[in-house]
Design a protein that fits this description.
By secondary structure, the chain is an alpha+beta fold. The chain is about 20% helix and about 30% strand. The chain has eight helices and 17 strands. Strand 16 and strand 17 form a beta hairpin.
């Protein structure tokens, strides 16, 4: 399944993406016999209720799609997508998780995942404009694999960690470098309002396979500026979840960005800062692509 959030006249609604068509998630659940009362208001609410049944629901909903029993809300060209989780309780990020990126920063390899946080207010949709040029002159890109938690997760073992994952998505950890390095903490540069594209969908693991075998690329104005594979992570998805869950309970809908490979703008000579009119794209194999213009 590909879970999305789409804009309606009453606000964000949970949806499903199938063959470039957006469907209402609640309608699909009713048609598949997976709901007996009340609509779910968000993707997070869906995961809270059904996060342990995603495989079964995928089969049931697939039958509905195959039978043509459901009309779409619209195509991707006509529907506005938001972040697939519009209201996460936590947005956690791992820094310095590719050895080549650690090398370009001049730091030592970390012994444990280096964590920082963003907030729901940081997130925008997969095709929204990044309107932050008034905040910083040093706007930078970081293409990343994002993990979305499907079930409450506390003190889990690495061997069982993937069973708590709802699916994977794409995130661009847009960073105001000048704000980031004003102090010893990164929050000011990382949690800028409405500056972090996320989406377009949460793709469940049955469609993706191994999260550590995915090509990831970032492009600025069509030029490839980052390229790697998630096998090159220092800490794999399972290790990150196991580590965080030892001290922090993860909830359905929580987002974990897993780090970026080499090639960020700040470490180029001269630096490559994003400017108004630039277009930045992050492509993650089997998962999707973000496409955003800088305003």
């Amino acid at each position: 399944m590909k879970l999305v959030s789409y804009e309606s006249r009453t606000g964000w609604k949970p949806g499903l993406l199938d063959s470039d068509q957006v469907f209402d998630l609640n309608s699909a659940l009713w048609a598949a016999g997976c709901r007996t009362s009340t609509d779910l208001p968000s993707v997070r609410a869906f995961l809270q209720t059904h996060g342990g049944q995603l495989a079964q629901i995928a089969v049931a909903v697939g039958t509905v799609f195959d039978g043509g029993a459901l009309d779409p809300v619209g195509s991707l060209d006509s529907v506005v997508l938001g972040p697939p989780v519009t209201d996460p309780l936590k947005v956690l990020c791992v820094g310095l998780n590719y050895a080549d990126h650690v090398g370009e920063t001049g730091r030592a390899l970390p012994a444990h995942p280096d964590l920082f946080a963003k907030f729901a207010s940081s997130l925008i949709g997969p095709y929204d404009a990044i309107d932050r040029s008034d905040v910083t002159d040093n706007l930078d890109f970081e293409g990343e694999l994002a993990v979305v938690i499907g079930r409450e997760c506390a003190r889990v073992d690495e061997s069982d960690a993937l069973s708590y994952v709802a699916g994977l998505s794409v995130l661009n950890d847009i960073t105001a470098r000048d704000l980031q390095y004003r102090g010893t903490q990164w929050l000011a540069g990382k949690a800028v309002d409405r500056a972090t594209p996320f989406g377009p969908a949460i793709v469940t693991l049955d469609e993706v396979g191994d999260p550590q075998a995915l090509d990831i690329e970032t492009f600025v104005n069509g030029t490839r500026v980052q390229g790697s594979n998630t096998k090159n992570m220092i800490f794999p998805v399972t290790g990150i979840i196991a580590y965080i869950s030892q001290f922090l309970t993860l909830s359905p809908g929580d987002v974990i960005a897993t780090g970026t490979p080499e090639g960020i703008g700040a470490k180029r000579n001269p630096p490559l800062w994003l400017r108004p009119g630039d277009n930045v794209e992050v492509v993650l194999e089997k998962v999707g692509a973000l496409r955003n213009e800088i305003h």
